[in-house]
Amino acid sequence: MNPWSDVPYADYERHMSHETVGQLALLNEITGEKVAQRYPQTVAVYGACTGNGFTHFVDAQTVYAVDLNPTYLAICQERYDPILNKLILLRVDINQESVAIPSESVDLLICHLFLEYVDLDRAFASFRQVLRPGGLLNVVLQRSNDTGWVSNTGVTTLRPVAAIASEVSDETLRQYASPDLRFEGYQTYRMPNGKSLISYDFVKVSELPQTDEDGSDDWLTWDR
Q1: How many whole angstroms separate alpha carbon 29 and alpha carbon 22?
Q2: Nearest one of 150, 135, 117 to 46, comparing CA atoms
Q3: Which of 78, 174, 215, 218 shows its CA 20 to 30 Å from the CA of 185?
Q4: CA angle, corner 180, sides to 124 and 102, nearest 5?
Q5: Spatial contact of 81 and 143, defined as CB atoms under 8 Å apart
Q6: Among 132-136, 170-174, 217-221, whose mean pLDDT is lowest?
Q7: What is the CB neighbour count within 10 angstroms for residue 217?
Q8: Digit-coded pLDDT (tens) for 170-181
Q9: What is the reported pTM?
Q10: Beta strands 106-112 and 87-91: pairing type?
């Protein structure tokens, strides 16, 4: 069984909002920024957990919350169904199942601290299927910076998730996004516990980018 199925939602939120972690508030802020950039009508959140950041979706017509933990989804529904136009809960283990979202229907896809725990081939295949041309994919990845994957906040129930976690490098992310998810930019956030979060934006293109004579894609050069 996936260890995320056994993490109580209160423990998850307490850990993520701990003063030495601070990730819950930052991810909420990033989500708000992406909504302000796009004003999306259809949103999908992969790894929705209990719905952090869903208050920003009040003007969207449809919001898909994708997660494998049914308790997380139940909390998400209780909190946000009353304020959203249409909230659709999808209990899915992306490593085993497909995500039942109509093809090319999503304007904004939020994927925060999710790719480190899943099969990248299956995840990116799903992203490509559900994103419409011109749709924005926002990915947030964690860099532990040799501090350990799960910070010591006194919450012990998250420790087992470290066994299935794997950092996704910039190069790997770029390879999986190429060629039809065009890199738009990134921002690095330094966290109180020594970790970093990096927010990446990709846009699904309707036509593949042109290549130079040497066969390289000109948009793949990242300014780091």
Answers
A1: 11
A2: 117
A3: 215
A4: 55
A5: no
A6: 217-221
A7: 16
A8: 999 999 999 999
A9: 0.90
A10: unpaired
Is residue 219's pLDDT more than 70?
A: no
Across 92-97, average pLDDT? 95
Pairing status of strand 181-190 against strand 196-204: antiparallel
Q: Which residue has the tokens 């085993």?
A: 96
pLDDT at 209: 55
Q: Rounded to an integer, what distance in angstroms lies between the CA atom of residue 50 and that of residue 48?
A: 6
Contact 54, 78 (CB under 8 A): no
End-to-end CA distance of the chain: 38
Q: Is 169 exposed, middle or buried (0-12, 13-18, 19+ CB in 10 A)?
A: exposed
Characterise 131 by phi-psi region: left (phi > 0), alpha (psi -120 to 50), beta (else).
beta
Question: Residue 215: which residues within 8 A CB-CB, separation 6 or more?
Answer: none
Task: State the virtual CA torsion across 78, 56, 90, 163 in degrees, nearest 10.
Answer: -100
- What is the sign of the dihedral through the CA atoms of 208, 210, 215 and 219? negative
Sheet holding 106-112, edge to edge: 87-91, 62-67, 42-46, 106-112, 131-143, 196-204, 181-190
User: Helices 120-130 & 170-177, crossing angle to 10 degrees?
Assistant: 50
Mean of the pLDDT values across residues 69-78? 98
